[in-house]
Design goal:
Helix content: 40-55%
Strand order of the largest sheet: 3-2-4-1-5
Structural class: alpha/beta
Order of helices and strands: EHEHEHEHEHEHEHEEEHHH
């Protein structure tokens, strides 16, 4: 049997009895980072053989893991923290398992995104997870457009290196929305800051979850950049530039700076 086993996201006690039992009984534990996982495995006196299974070797390792299963081995997959596959390696393997009709199961446990959603206090009846924002402009633009059109609470991940850049990108796309910036989940210095964008985090450390509050001001028919620019040009026929920008800000809850920059970028094309 193949087990996808959830591991703690901070506090080492946040692991189920079943997860410990399964890890102890498996022949092989495939880890996102064997050095990182050693801390958890040593803590619970787990001595199964470990192998590396990460995004850089996922395709080849999946072949090896399937071969082990066909040999009759029990294999566990763990990521550095939380639920495997969710923003972690594993999707390639599950696709192959389904293709070859090989059964597998999940040992449930902690998930940072869901914990952050609860800590935010925002509506949890309808939400979506968008992972990390891309550092490539074209992909980032597509992500932000998708996020802006979702009608519900939105959950993202970020790091200390990108948190302020990500907050700025969200502000430019969504305007003055309320967000929860959650860090150190389940750890001693767990923190949840509820702020309204724009906002800059001072001295960021570690990993972050960003939860964006759903707002009735964000319409489901939010225009694309090209549609927004065309509407701006139409408004400029009868309005001063600042007034036209203000009209669009109020209509779509898009930051005035974002509309202005869009105008400056396209006016000479």
């Amino acid at each position: 049997m193949l087990y996808f086993v959830s591991t703690p996201i901070g506090n080492l006690d946040d692991i189920s009895f079943r997860a410990i039992s399964v890890l102890k009984s498996c022949d092989i534990i495939a880890c996102e980072d064997t050095r990182h996982s050693k801390i958890l495995l040593d803590h619970y006196d787990i001595h199964a053989k470990t192998i590396a299974y990460h995004k850089f070797n996922e395709k080849n390792s999946s072949e090896g893991i399937i071969a082990l299963l066909k040999e009759g081995k029990n294999v566990a997959i763990i990521s550095d923290a939380g639920m495997p596959i969710i923003n972690d390696p594993g999707a390639v393997l599950t696709a192959r398992l389904h293709k070859e009709n090989i059964k597998y199961t999940i040992i449930p446990g902690a998930n940072a995104g869901l914990c952050a959603l609860i800590l935010s206090g925002f509506d949890a009846t309808k939400f979506a997870f968008f992972g990390f924002l891309s550092e490539k402009n074209k992909e980032l633009k597509a992500q932000l457009e998708e996020i802006s059109k979702f009608n519900g609470t939105k959950i993202l991940y970020s790091s200390k290196y990108n948190i302020n850049k990500d907050l700025e990108a969200i502000f430019k796309a969504l305007g003055e929305v309320q967000v929860a910036i959650v860090s150190e989940i389940t750890k001693l210095h767990e923190s949840t800051e509820i702020v309204t964008l724009p906002y800059t985090l001072t001295n960021p450390k570690g990993e972050y979850a960003i939860v964006i509050k759903d707002s009735e001001k964000i319409p489901t028919n939010r225009p694309t950049d090209s549609e927004l620019y065309e509407e701006l040009i139409t408004l400029l026929c009868d309005n001063a530039k600042n007034d036209a920008i203000k009209i669009l800000k109020q209509k779509y809850n898009i930051a005035k700076s974002y509309i202005y920059n869009l105008y400056e970028k396209n006016k000479n094309k």
